[in-house]
C-alpha cells in the first residue's frame, strides 16, 4: 500500500500525517474523506474505501490521524484530554484540508465526510463547527454521548489487549501500537470523559447526514444515531440487522448501496 506524508501544524509543533488519494483523477466527482475509528488507520480500513469509491465513482482521501498508522505517534507521556475529538475536528482536520487544498474555493472542493466510531464523532463536530465547509456526512456507529455499554466494552478490550494476540494484530497497522492503543483506551476509561456530549452541537449541522448503526453494536445503542436525528432532523437513519460496531465490514453491501445513493442524491459536486 503506497501512502504519502504531509506535515501539518498541531499543538504548537509540526506533525506528519499519513494519507492516500483514491481515484484522484475523477475531479468532477464527489470527494469522500474517510475518518477511521479509535484504533484505526489507513490500513485498518482494508479495501473498503477503494471499493466504496469505485461503487459510487467517487474520489477518496484516506488518512491516519495523529497517533495512528504511519502518522506521528503520540508521545507515551502525553495524555489526551476529554476534548481530544474536538481538537481533531477543529484543529487537525482543517489543517490537513488546508495542506491538501480541500474545501470551499479550493482545488478539491467541499468534501463528504465518512467517519466510523470516533471518526464519526469527529465528522459530526467538524460539520457543526464549520457548517459551510462540507457537502454532507455519513457516520457509522458514531458516539454522541458516553454510554455504560461503551465503557464496559472498552474495558473488555483493554483486557483483551493485555492477555491475547490483539496487540500483535494491531501492530501491523501502527508504527507505535502502544501509543495508539493506550491513547485511545486511557481517555475512554477516564472518568472525566463521561462528560463527553455532542448533543449541544448537533443543531448546528446543516448538511445532509446519513447515520448508520448495527443492531448488535457492542459499543453503542441506537440512541447514538437517534439522538443525532432529534437535533439535526435532516438526518436519515440506517439500522442494520446482523451488524456489530463495524457496518463497513459486517454489512458492506447494504451500507455501500445506501450511502452511495445518499451521496449521489444530495451532493453539490456532481457535474
From TrEMBL:
Pfam families: Abhydrolase_6 (PF12697). Keywords: Hydrolase. GO terms for molecular function: hydrolase activity. This is Alpha/beta hydrolase fold protein. Residues 32-258 form the AB hydrolase-1 domain. It comes from the Bacteria. InterPro entries: AB_hydrolase_1, AB_hydrolase_fold. It comes from Cupriavidus metallidurans (strain ATCC 43123 / DSM 2839 / NBRC 102507 / CH34) (Ralstonia metallidurans).
Amino acid at each position: 500500500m503506497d501512502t504519502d506524508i504531509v506535515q501539518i501544524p498541531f499543538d504548537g509543533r509540526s506533525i506528519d500525517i499519513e494519507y492516500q488519494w483514491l481515484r484522484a483523477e475523477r475531479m468532477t466527482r464527489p470527494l469522500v474523506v474517510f475518518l477511521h475509528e479509535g484504533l484505526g488507520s489507513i490500513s485498518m480500513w482494508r479495501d473498503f474505501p477503494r471499493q466504496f469509491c469505485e461503487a459510487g465513482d467517487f474520489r477518496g482521501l484516506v488518512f491516519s490521524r495523529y497517533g495512528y498508522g504511519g502518522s506521528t505517534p503520540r508521545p507515551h507521556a502525553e495524555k489526551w484530554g476529554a476534548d481530544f475529538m474536538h481538537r481533531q475536528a477543529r484543529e487537525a482536520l482543517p489543517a490537513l484540508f488546508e495542506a491538501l487544498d480541500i474545501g470551499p474555493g479550493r482545488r478539491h472542493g467541499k468534501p463528504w465526510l465518512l467517519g466510523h466510531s470516533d471518526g464519526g464523532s469527529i465528522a459530526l463536530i467538524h460539520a457543526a463547527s464549520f457548517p459551510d465547509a462540507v457537502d454532507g456526512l455519513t457516520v457509522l456507529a458514531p458516539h454522541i454521548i458516553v454510554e455504560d455499554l461503551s465503557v464496559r466494552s472498552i474495558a473488555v478490550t483493554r483486557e483483551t489487549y493485555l492477555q491475547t494476540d490483539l496487540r500483535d494484530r494491531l501492530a501491523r497497522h501502527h508504527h507505535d501500537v502502544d501509543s495508539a492503543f493506550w491513547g485511545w483506551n486511557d481517555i475512554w476509561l477516564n472518568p472525566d470523559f463521561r462528560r463527553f456530549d455532542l448533543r449541544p452541537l448537533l443543531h448546528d449541522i446543516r448538511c445532509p447526514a446519513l447515520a448508520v448503526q448495527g443492531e448488535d453494536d457492542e459499543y453503542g445503542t441506537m440512541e447514538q444515531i437517534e439522538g443525532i436525528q432529534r437535533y439535526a432532523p435532516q438526518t436519515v437513519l440506517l439500522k442494520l440487522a446482523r451488524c456489530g460496531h463495524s457496518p463497513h465490514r459486517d454489512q458492506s453491501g447494504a451500507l455501500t448501496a445506501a450511502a452511495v445513493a445518499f451521496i449521489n442524491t444530495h451532493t453539490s459536486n456532481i457535474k
